[in-house]
C-alpha cells in the first residue's frame, strides 16, 4: 500500500483524502465504484417522464493498482482479474480536487461512485429541489422534467394528476444538477449531463449513479459555507443582475390585451400599488385548450391584443412602467414562422428526417435545435429583434425540459446526453441576446429550467409552476427549498409566481393564499404576480379592494427595501452568495438550523418565516441565537422557538438588531 | 458447436430444444442467464411488503463449453474469461425436461434465466393471480403477502389504502408460484421458494429472476391443455376432494354465538334456503379493533358464544347441517396457550432468542414454527383435538403469508427462503391432521395462502379478501382470474366469499353485489357467504326478504347441480383438471378465448359469464363456437358476442347442447 504525503491529497490504505477529508474509501463491504451496462426505456408524456433501466450488467470494482506522484494519484480498478476503470486524482491551480474517471474497456454506460459519508452529515443542492432541502435519507433521480402537480404520492392532487402521468414526485424538477454541498464543508460538482441518480440513503456513503462516464468530478472545501459559495460560483459562474427598474415595485402578470391591462393597471395604481412592470405572457396571442388559456407560440406581438405594442411600451415607460413578455424554445406548427424554419432545418428531427413534433396538449411544436449554430443564431435573433427591439425589457424564458430522447439533432449528439443540458443552451441563447443587445443593464429574463451553467447564463430563476394551494411539496412553502437549493449551488436570485399557477384537480386559489404569497414575495428579489392557468376561476388581486390595498402595502415595503436588496444582490454578484440563505449559512453552530426549510434569511440580516397554512393569526418561528427585532412590532426576540402574532397582513419577519440596515428596517416596520 | 441428435433434446447452435420446442437460445443481444449479488431490503407492515434489492453485481453469461451425451446436455457459462454457472439438461423417466443450474463459484444469490418466447405467445399461472390472467406484457414479483385493498394504483381505494401501506398492486397475492403454462403447450415449474420475479414483458423471451439458485426447472409438453393439466398435477399432486355434505347447499358465514346463529339459520330455512353448513369464524371468540371485529386467536371453542359446542354441533348435524370453524398458524400473545407454547420453543424467534411478535393490527401474535417438528405436531394436534374432535367438519385455514424475513427459525433456515414456502407447510399441517383423523371423507378446509405443493396439500382454495365492490382488480370479477390461474397450475377447486369481505375506504357492500356474487357462486365448487370485516355496516342477506328468496333459489340451483358438479370434481381428482376452466382450455382454436378472463367454463359443459357491474339488465357475453343453450330461457346460441338478458336473478349461464348433462341443465333452467 503506497502512502503519498502530499500537501492536499493523500492515499492511505485504499482511502483518498483531500485536505484531511476522506472522500473515497474502499472497504470489504463497500467498493468505491461500479460499472454497468444498461438500456434506458424513457417515455415522455407532456414533459413528464417514465424512466426505467434495463440493467444487463453491473460489476463492483476493487483497487488493483495505485500510482502516486506529486499531487497526482491514479487508482486502477478491476473485477475478477481484469481492469476496467482508472480514477485519477489531481489538485488544480485553484486547489480544487479533480477526479477523472477513464474507462479501460469500452462498452460500459453506467457508473456508480461512492463518496465517503458521515452518519450525521447533511447534503444540499442537486439543482432546484422543492420537497427536501436536506437531501440525506433519499435518492434523487436527476432528469429535467415538469415538476409535477402535487409531487407527493400520498396526496389526492398527485393521485388525480397521475391519471394523466402528471403527478410528479418529491424529486421531479425543471432544474436537476449534479452538484451538492455537504456539511463536511465541501462541494462536489460533477461534469455530466446524463441521467443520474444521487443516492443519499446510506449512512456510510453517498452513491452517485451516472448513465455514462462523467468528464470529471470537482471538489473544493472552505471553512465557512459563505466562502464555499464564493468558491462554487467562481467555478460555475455568476450572473446575479437585476435592472434597477425592478426596484420600483411589483411586476404585474396580466393578460387580455392593452385595453384590459391598462384598466387593471389604473385600478391598482389608484390604490397606490407600486408597479415596476406589466408582464403580459400573451403578448404573442393565445389559444384556448382544456388546460386553460394557452399562449400562441410564435414570438411576435399580437396586433389584435396589443396593437402598436412598441409605441404603447414607450408610453408605459414614460409612466415609469416596463413591459415584459414571454418566450420559449419551441414553435407551434401552425405558427407563421414554422414552415420557413422547418425548411432551414432549425428544428430537431425524427429518425425519418421530418420535424419532430412534441405534443404540448392540444397543439404541437417543433423544438428549436440549439446544436445547429444557424438555428441558435436565428432564435437569438428573435429575442433581439422581436422582443428587445420591440421595447420589451424583461421576459419569462419558459420551458426547456421537453427534449425527447428519440430526436435526431443537428450535431448528432445523443439526446439522452443532451436532455439535461438543453436548459442551459436555452439560457445561453437568452444570455447572448442580452449581451449583444448592448442594453444588458436594462434587461432581465427569468427561467424555470436549468442545468449546470445556469449560474452563469441565467440571472434570475423562478420556482416554476406551483399548485394554487398550501401543500408542502407543491404549494406556497415549496418555493423556499426551491430557492435555498438552487441558491446553495450558485443560482443567487430566485422568485415565484405570487399566488401560484396550477389550478387543476380541484385546487382553486383563495384570496388568502394570494395575500400570504405576496407578503413572502416582498422579501425576495422580485415581486411578480400571475393570473394562473385558469384566471377566470381563480382569485385575482384586482377583483378585491382589500387584497389590492394589502398588495399596495407590500409593494411599498418591497420598494423601501431597495437599498438593502441592492446590497444583497451585490453580494450575489460579487461573492456568489444566494439572496435567500438557509439559516445554517449564517449560523453554522446551530444544529437545528440545518433542518429548517420553511424559513430563510434574505441576505444576512432579515429572517423570513412565511405563513404557509390558511386561517392563522399566529405562527411558530424558529430563531437562531442572535438579537432579533420583530419587524412589524419592533419587539425584541432572542434565539429559540417563538409563537408570534401573524395575522393576515403580517408575515413573520425579523431583522438582526445589529444590522447595518437596522434603521431602514425599523422605518419599514413602523410605516406599514 | 456440437450437435446432439436425441429423441427429445437437441442442442444446436447455442439453442436447446425439447420436443422441437426451442426453450433456451443464446443470441448476441440476449444471453440465457445472468448471475448477480444483491442484498434484500424487506419491510413488512401487516402482511404488506415493501421490497427493494440493493444489487451490487450483475453479469451476463455466455456459453463457454457444451457437453453432450444421450439425453443429457451440459452448458458451461461464463463472463469475461471465467466460468460461473453450469446448466444441465436431462430427460427424466416421465419424459420431462429437467434443467439443473449449478454455481461453479460461490457467493452469487441472484439468477436470471431467459426462456425463448414467441411474440404472440401467452402465459398463465404464476400462482393465484387476480388482475391479469394472461401474464404476457407484465412482470410478476412472486412473494406471498396480503393481496392488497384496491390492487390498482389508479383507483381511489388503492390510493387511500396506500396511506397505510395496504393498497397492493396488480401482482400482490396470497399465493405466488414459480409455475406457468404457455400457449406453446408447455408448462414450466421451478423448484424454488425464494423471492422471484417472472418478467413476461419482452417479445422474445421470458425472464425468470430468482433470489437464489433454484434446485431445478421442470418442463413438460402435451398436445392439449387438458393433457397438460393432467401432466402438471401428476408432478405437483392432486387433492380435489369435497365431502358430499357440501352438496347440500350454502355454507353460511355467521357469527355472534349459538343463539344468533340459530335464529338466522331458522329465518333462512323458513325461506327454503338450502344450507350445507354454518361457518362461524368466531367460534373461538372475538376482540374488537378499529379494523372491525377480529377473531381471538386461541383455537378452542368460546364457551360464552358457543356453549357446549360439541353437543350443539351434533344437534345441527342431525338437522343435516355441518359446523365449520376457523384457524390460522399464529397464537395471540394474550391467549391461554401462548405462554406454554413459547416456553417450549414452538414459536419463531427474534435474534435475541425471544418470541418474535407480529403486529396484526392492535394485537400481537407468535408465529408457530413449522420447522420445529414438535411445534408442527403440537399444532396438528390442535386441529385434530380442538377442531375435528370437537365435531367441526370444515374450517378456514387462514393466513400463512406473514412470515417476517428477520425471524430465527428452529432449523435455522433463511426466512427469506422460507417465506414463500410457509403456506405449504401450513397446508401440510392441516392435511396430515385430516389424514390422521381417519375421517378424511367427511372433512374439508380451505386456504387462501399457497405455494408449490398446495396442489397436493390443499383440497380447496378461496380467493382471499375481495373489497366489497365491483372493481376489476379487487372486486367480484377478480375471483375469476383467481380461480383460472390457480386452477391452471393444478389447484383444481376454488371459491370465494359471497359478497366480498373488505369494507374499508368507503366501500360498502350493496344488496345487488351480494346477489350477483351468489349467482356466480352457485356455479363454482362451493357456495359460502361471509358477513365481511364490518358486518353491521354492510349488507347481510338475512336482513332482506328479497335477497333471502334469491339466495334460496340459487342454493337450489347449486344443489340440483350436484351430479354435474360431482363429475367435475371427479375430473379434478383423477385427471387434475380445474373445476373452472379458461375458455381456451376447451376451445383451443379460438384466438379470442385466450384473452377472456371474465368468463369461465364450469367443467366442460357450462359457460358462466358473471355480471360484474351494478344496474345491468343485459350483459355482453362471448361464446366460443359451439351449440349453446341459455340456461334460463332455453334459447339456442352459437359462437360470437351476444347481448343477453341478465336481470338481477339471472346470471348469464349457457350449457353445451350436446352435453351429457343437457337434461339436468334443462330442468334446472326451467325450475328456477
From TrEMBL, chains A, B:
GO molecular function: carbohydrate binding; hydrolase activity, hydrolyzing O-glycosyl compounds
Keyword set, alphabetical order: Glycosidase, Hydrolase
One GO BP: carbohydrate metabolic process
Limits of the Glycosyl hydrolase family 31 C-terminal domain: 576-659
Coiled-coil positions: none
Domain Glycoside hydrolase family 31 TIM barrel: 258-556
Family: Belongs to the glycosyl hydrolase 31 family.
Name of the protein described by the UniProt record: Alpha-glucosidase
Amino acid at each position: 500500500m503506497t502512502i503519498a504525503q502530499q500537501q492536499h491529497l493523500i492515499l492511505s490504505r485504499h482511502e483518498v483524502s483531500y485536505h484531511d477529508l476522506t472522500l473515497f474509501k474502499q472497504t470489504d463491504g463497500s467498493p468505491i465504484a461500479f460499472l454497468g451496462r444498461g438500456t434506458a426505456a424513457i417515455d415522455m408524456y407532456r414533459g413528464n417522464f417514465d424512466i426505467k433501466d434495463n440493467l444487463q450488467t453491473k460489476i463492483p470494482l476493487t483497487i488493483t493498482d495505485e500510482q502516486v506522484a506529486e499531487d497526482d494519484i491514479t487508482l486502477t480498478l478491476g473485477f475478477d482479474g481484469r481492469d476496467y476503470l482508472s480514477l485519477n486524482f489531481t489538485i488544480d491551480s485553484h486547489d480544487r480536487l479533480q477526479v477523472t474517471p477513464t474507462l479501460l474497456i469500452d462498452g460500459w454506460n453506467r457508473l456508480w461512485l461512492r463518496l465517503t459519508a458521515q452518519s450525521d452529515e447533511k447534503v444540499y443542492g442537486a439543482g432546484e429541489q422543492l420537497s427536501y432541502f436536506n437531501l440525506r435519507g433519499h435518492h434523487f433521480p436527476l432528469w429535467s422534467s415538469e415538476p409535477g402537480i402535487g409531487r407527493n404520492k400520498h396526496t389526492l392532487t398527485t393521485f388525480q394528476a397521475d391519471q394523466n402521468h402528471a403527478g410528479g414526485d418529491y424529486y421531479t424538477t425543471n432544474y436537476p444538477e449534479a452538484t451538492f454541498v455537504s456539511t463536511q464543508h465541501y462541494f462536489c460538482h460533477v461534469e455530466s449531463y446524463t441521467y443520474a441518480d444521487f443516492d443519499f440513503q446510506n449512512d456510510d456513503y453517498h452513491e452517485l449513479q451516472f448513465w455514462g462516464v462523467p468528464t470529471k468530478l470537482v471538489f473544493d472545501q472552505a471553512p465557512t459555507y459563505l466562502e464555499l459559495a464564493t468558491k462554487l460560483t467562481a467555478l460555475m459562474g455568476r450572473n446575479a443582475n437585476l435592472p434597477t427598474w425592478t426596484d420600483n415595485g411589483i411586476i404585474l402578470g396580466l393578460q387580455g390585451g392593452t385595453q384590459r391591462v391598462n384598466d387593471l393597471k389604473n385600478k391598482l395604481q389608484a390604490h397606490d400599488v407600486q408597479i415596476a412592470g406589466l408582464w403580459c405572457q400573451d403578448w404573442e396571442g393565445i389559444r384556448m385548450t382544456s388546460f386553460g388559456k394557452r399562449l400562441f407560440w410564435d414570438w411576435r406581438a399580437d396586433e389584435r391584443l396589443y396593437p402598436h405594442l412598441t409605441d404603447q411600451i414607450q408610453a408605459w415607460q414614460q409612466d415609469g412602467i416596463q413591459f415584459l413578455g414571454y418566450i420559449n424554445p419551441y414553435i407551434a406548427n401552425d405558427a407563421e414562422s414554422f414552415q420557413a424554419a422547418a425548411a432551414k432545418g432549425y428544428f430537431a428531427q425524427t429518425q425519418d428526417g421530418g420535424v419532430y413534433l412534441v405534443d404540448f396538449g392540444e397543439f404541437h411544436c417543433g423544438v428549436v435545435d440549439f446544436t445547429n449554430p444557424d438555428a441558435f443564431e436565428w432564435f437569438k435573433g428573435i429575442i433581439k429583434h422581436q422582443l428587445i427591439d420591440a421595447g420589451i425589457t424583461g421576459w419569462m424564458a419558459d420551458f426547456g425540459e421537453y427534449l425527447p430522447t428519440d430526436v435526431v439533432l443537428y450535431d448528432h449528439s445523443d439526446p439522452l446526453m443532451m436532455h439535461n443540458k438543453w436548459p442551459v443552451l436555452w439560457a445561453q441563447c437568452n444570455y447572448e441576446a442580452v449581451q449583444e443587445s448592448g442594453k444588458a443593464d436594462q434587461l432581465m429574463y427569468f427561467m424555470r429550467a436549468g442545468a449546470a451553467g445556469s449560474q452563469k447564463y441565467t440571472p434570475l430563476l423562478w420556482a416554476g409552476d406551483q399548485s394554487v394551494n398550501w401543500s408542502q411539496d407543491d404549494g406556497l412553502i415549496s418555493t423556499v427549498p426551491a430557492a435555498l437549493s438552487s441558491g446553495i449551488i450558485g443560482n443567487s436570485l430566485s422568485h415565484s409566481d405570487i399566488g401560484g399557477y396550477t389550478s387543476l384537480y380541484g385546487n382553486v386559489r383563495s384570496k388568502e393564499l394570494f395575500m400570504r404569497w405576496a407578503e413572502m414575495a416582498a422579501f425576495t428579489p422580485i415581486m411578480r404576480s400571475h393570473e394562473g392557468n385558469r384566471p377566470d376561476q381563480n382569485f385575482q388581486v384586482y377583483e378585491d379592494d382589500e387584497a389590492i390595498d394589502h398588495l399596495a402595502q407590500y409593494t411599498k415595503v418591497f420598494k423601501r427595501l431597495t437599498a438593502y436588496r441592492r446590497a444583497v444582490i451585490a453580494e450575489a454578484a460579487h461573492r456568489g452568495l444566494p439572496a435567500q440563505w438557509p439559516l445554517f449559512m449564517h449560523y453554522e453552530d446551530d444544529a437545528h438550523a440545518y433542518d429548517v426549510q420553511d424559513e430563510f434569511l434574505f441576505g444576512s440580516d432579515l429572517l423570513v418565516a412565511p405563513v404557509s397554512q390558511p386561517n392563522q393569526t399566529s405562527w411558530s418561528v424558529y430563531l437562531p441565537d442572535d438579537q432579533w427585532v420583530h419587524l412589524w412590532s419592533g419587539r425584541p426576540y432572542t434565539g429559540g422557538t417563538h409563537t408570534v402574532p401573524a395575522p393576515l397582513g403580517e408575515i413573520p419577519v425579523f431583522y438582526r438588531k445589529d444590522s447595518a440596515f437596522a434603521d431602514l428596517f425599523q422605518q419599514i416596520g413602523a410605516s406599514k
